[in-house]
Amino acid sequence: MVVRVCCVRGTHFQVGLQVGRAFRGQIAEYFERYRVFAKLLATLQEDAGRNVHEGYLRAAKSAYPHYVDEIAGMSEGSGLPFEHLFLMHCQPEFGLMFKEECKVEAVAEGCTTVFLNAKNGPRILAHNEDGDSLIKDLGYVVVASIDPYELPNGEVIPAEGFTAFCYPGLLAGNAYGFNQDGLCSTGNFQLAKCVERDKIPQRFLCRALLSAATVEQAVDMLRTDCVGMASGYSYNVVSTKDRASNMYSIEVAPAEGEARNMVSVHVIEPGDGQTDGRYNHYNLYDHLDTPHWRDPSSDHRKDRAAVVGPLSTKEDVLKFMGDTEDPEYPVYRSQTGNDVFMTTTTGVFDLEAGVLEVFTGNPAKGEEPDVIFVLPV
Question: Residue 310 and residue 248: Cα distance in Å, rounded?
Fold first, then answer.
């Protein structure tokens, strides 16, 4: 399968415009066929849904006006209404807040992330991007170089550069990617029971992390955000320039009624290849104590990892990412049993080789990656 790659350059609006034009057909098809979108759109016909939508838009404009500009550019380039694109950026929050209308399954799409951090190698951060089957055919990679942005208060946001796998019509950052400073990241949606109004939809924080130059800056961004995040998420990050060679799992949840986030950082230090230097993350909070719903797929994937045992080589990791032994909720998902989602792509950051490998098929089959991107060092 061919991976679509688009290289764009300019202001935030211009980059959004170019992406919208380049993937106009994919974006239109996704919004037309994605069964959840019609349910999301219906919530705006009621005052409750309209008020939540407007509150999220105010928060996003206040904290990240440059990313709102990107969406506006995508709207113009794709020909779809801005309201529709912005609403899709609020899908996780709407799906939890309006559970009966949107169905929680629509937001519990999943993802499996594996950390393998051995002192003498390998050093791997692997991620299965699980979601609606449409993403497998309609998703794409954006390689962006974005001009500095001046905020209304005169503060200048530095230039950005990143490479990221994207959902049609959505900002980069909610899947996997890396930036010009060598910060590599993947994400896992978390079903935190606290979902806040008038705060920032989590997909904007995903986009913002692509601008962080270091892991410390990324964590600080999540801790000191002046508005607060509307729903939960976890970020898996590693930097090609981290002298300590650590990897990090960062879990975040809204602080109810407060303009801040709850943040927990778990460090995966380089191990001896025997007992440490390993960690897996699913769609379950693991080290942040916050109320959340269980995800049956995550429970099954976690149980399967315990059966498989420790992973010691890159081949072990690829085999686990492609594991299909659980007939109901496998690690490599393909809409089997009760599982309505599928693994759309697998992204593998090989820190020793200095590359991001993207697989559109099962990575356990021993086939070469469909595309390889060189990481900044």
Answer: 19
What gap in Å lies between CA 207 and CA 172, rounded to an integer? 6
What is the model's pLDDT at position 273? 59
Q: What is the pLDDT of residue 150?
A: 95
DSSP 327-338: SSS-SS-BS-TT
Q: Residue 274: its pLDDT value, please? A: 63
Evaluate if pTM is beyond 0.85: yes
Residue 217: CB atoms within 10 A of its CB come to: 14
**Mutual orientation of helices 65-78 and 24-33 as an angle, nearest 10°?**
90
Encoded tokens for 23: 């993937």
Cβ atoms of 272 and 308 closer than 8 Å: no
Specify the pairing of strand 160-166 against strand 183-189.
unpaired
Q: Is the pLDDT at 227 greater than 90, yes or no?
A: no
315 phi and psi, to 5 degrees?
Answer: -65, -40
Question: For residue 201, is pLDDT > 50?
Answer: yes
Work out the widest C-alpha separation in the chain, in whole angstroms: 58
Q: Closest Cα partner for 311 from 149, 109, 105, 122?
A: 122
Predicted confidence at residue 354, as pLDDT, reads 98
Instruction: Give yes or no for a contact between 12 and 67, defined as CB atoms under 8 angstroms apart.
Output: yes
Residue 126 backbone dihedrals phi, psi, to 5 degrees: -115, 145
